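Appendix B, Record 12. Input sequence as logged:
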Amino acid sequence: MYILEIILLLYFTYVTCYAFTFSTGALFYKTTKDRGTTLYNKIAVLIPAYKEDAVIIDGAAGALMQRYPSDKFDVIVIADSLQPATINKLSQLPVRVIEVVFEKSTKVRALNKAMEVIGDGYDCAVVLDADNVMESTFLRKMNNLFNLRYKAIQGRREPKNRNTTMAILDGLSETINNFIYRQGHNALGFSSSLNGSGMFFDYRQFKEIMTSMDSIGGFDRELEFRLIERGITVHYAKNIVVYDEKVDRPEVFEKQRRRWMSSQFFYLRKFFKSGVMGLLRGNLNYFNATVLRNFQLPRLMNLGLLTLVTLTAVIFARYVHISPIAWIVLLILNIASIAFAIPARLYNIELLKSFLLVPSIFLKMFVLIFKLKGANKTFIHTPHGQVEHVDANNL
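Logged structural output:
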């Protein structure tokens, strides 16, 4: 029993200190000043669309609505398993459509094929999901940062739908991730984690790295590791926004989280040795990305399990070796790290309603741990198109 208590104490001390340190650090984050520029780089806006017939027309049309010289960016839709009617509608827009067919579809394969077709006539690349809507100044602001020598930039993804309590909770989760793993990381000198979309890169570097990859799930994790290996730190641009559809149904949430958890532990195993070697060489940034951040259960599970352990320690205080006070302190710090990350504007009745879902979501995620086998061997698609279209002109 004593050994189990020590193991649990060490683990929860680690995850709590990690979250609290970066959440506190995020309070000191400073947005990079946009100095403006007259140099407009040529940008490829890449939109992989696998069975995204419901959203890709609006997504492609919205991507065109940028306050950026029209001859300096191209919207490129990578059409994988789209219906002929969808392809026909896309052909009526001033976008480039690249149709692809794979035995096993992945984002990496789609992006690599697209860059093979479009060639090397671009300075920068943007990666979007089919449902994403960029704010109208997205490309201009990203271009300005690129001219300040930032070669990899993660924009801030904001939810474009709050139509269900599940969607609100999913959006809240991303807000917390932005604060701790992007804003906090940058504030303390570490690379921001990538988000999978709303990303901006030096085109040459991006293409070179992507051609060395064949990830099935969680390609953004491996991409981040490869960037750091090259000495490129991902910059988080809090003030550059892309709107993203949040999952609004429990079954979609479970499918998405299963994919995320599977990829996290897959890359932990794959890069653990190189991450430790990076630490020995003094590359703490690489060690943090490959090991420290991945050697954790999802935040909601950590909070749920720590709450259960704390309650157990309090109830059975006479029979445990470690004082319940230790667990109470860890729980308070864990809650504080989350509280710091939630903007004041979100503290409302909707937030309270979403919290009521937390126990059931915790149980679902706990069960998912035992269903991860094989999840990273097959591309698990998250369907979109359950929300109303967001007009980029109004953002």
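The two ends are 56 Å apart (CA to CA).
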